[in-house]
Amino acid sequence: MKIDLPERKKLVHEMRFPVRWGDMDAMGHVNNTVYFRYLETARIDWMVAMGCRPDPDGQGPVIAHAFCNFYHQLEYPADVLLRMYVSDPGRTTFETWGTMERQSQPGVICAAGGATTIWVDFRQSKAVPLPDWMRALVE
């Protein structure tokens, strides 16, 4: 299955992780909500690696919209490769994208999702322009 990501996307992060037994639901596959947790973990790992630690007294990312499309089931045991991309910086926003595949089946995308990320001043609870350093990372 071909996954269409924006042509402007930029690969910024890769992570590998095992599917945990507790990630599965009663149907024997990874629960749909867990894929969002995988995407969240990749976003946070990337941000921390870039020196942007979550700070409730400062500024940082808030997710305004998230989605995930499911193509092939993931189930325990499996190791997953998640690739994260960024694109489309706006005044206060940028897009993140992620693809997930089993390491044992390279190139076969099991799920793909993303999120619109808004840069927020947490104390003021309002969107603010992307800092220049973040804009440089996502352009």
TrEMBL record:
InterPro entries associated with the record: 4-hydroxybenzoyl-CoA_TE, HotDog_dom_sf
Q: Name one GO molecular function term.
A: fatty acyl-CoA hydrolase activity
Pfam families, per database record: 4HBT_2
User: What is the protein name stated in its UniProt record?
Assistant: Thioesterase superfamily protein
High-level lineage: Bacteria, Pseudomonadati, Pseudomonadota, Betaproteobacteria, Burkholderiales
